[in-house]
Amino acid sequence: MAWLVKDVCGIICALLAWVLLAFAQYTLLTIVLLPQPDTFRKYFHLVVFEFFSILLVIAHLKTILTDPGSVPQKTATPEYLRELEQNEFQQPNNVVYKCPECCSVKPERAHHCSVCKRCIRKMDHHCPWVNNCIGERNQKYFVLFTLYVAVLSFHALYLTVTHIMNCLESDWDSSHNSCSMMSKGRPSPGKLILLVFLVFEALLFSLFSLIMFYMQMKAIWTDWTGIEHLKRESRDRRSGCMSLRSVCGNHMILWLSPLTKPPPKINPLITSHARSSSYMNYPV
């Protein structure tokens, strides 16, 4: 089933991410890379930048269009609660939690998102840049998205700064070092403004994406989501390696690929009595 959060702010932010990528593509290609002589360096950086751009687009779309782990709505009916009560696997100290917002039986580690209007399994946070929650089924794609943004930002920053430095060293001579910023014998203000804005964009998003990547990797390694950390929810945690494999899969060679799906999850509806008491609960 297709998944898309119908949130105006989130859709605008997701489209803005594409606009910023398109701007970086246009500026870097037309001013920095394509005007250079046909050398190995030119085509190497061109292939690398476009390769990671494609991976970024795939990871971004996967994060947006993948159900993050939504819980079926309106499942907390009296009949279903009685069925859970008779479950032979039910333990004495366990309780069933009902979400008062979407009337669903909340699995362990699920939280309600006010933007998605659903309970999301293993919800970390809601990110407007991907117009979606980051949860059990799309966390891998989001981690890769932040990684690719960081790689592209640092790459664009390096290429842009070195190009400007080459132009300065050649005294803005367009025949030297492929300085393509000349217009009528002097530096083009328009091209210079585009490059300065690209440097600012690359600096901003390289730092932002690195911070997000670190926070996500820490959450995965400690098996403690962002919401669980904020609410100080206590529970048994898996080891870092087990948690990493549960998000990215068992084959390390496929961890960096946005084309592979995260491993399937088992989502029991019976929740531990250690969960936060801020939700409605029905002892069974």
From TrEMBL:
Keywords: Acyltransferase, Membrane, Transferase, Transmembrane, Transmembrane helix. Residues 98-232 form the Palmitoyltransferase DHHC domain. Signal peptide: none annotated. GO terms for cellular component: membrane. It is found in: Membrane. PROSITE patterns: DHHC. It is a multi-pass membrane protein. InterPro entries: Palmitoyltrfase_DHHC, PFA4/ZDH16/20/ERF2-like. The chain crosses the membrane at residues 43-61, 141-161, 192-214. GO terms for molecular function: protein-cysteine S-palmitoyltransferase activity. Its EC number is 2.3.1.225. It catalyses: L-cysteinyl-[protein] + hexadecanoyl-CoA = S-hexadecanoyl-L-cysteinyl-[protein] + CoA. PANTHER family: PALMITOYLTRANSFERASE ZDHHC16. Belongs to the DHHC palmitoyltransferase family. The DHHC domain is required for palmitoyltransferase activity. This is Palmitoyltransferase. The gene is Zdhhc3.
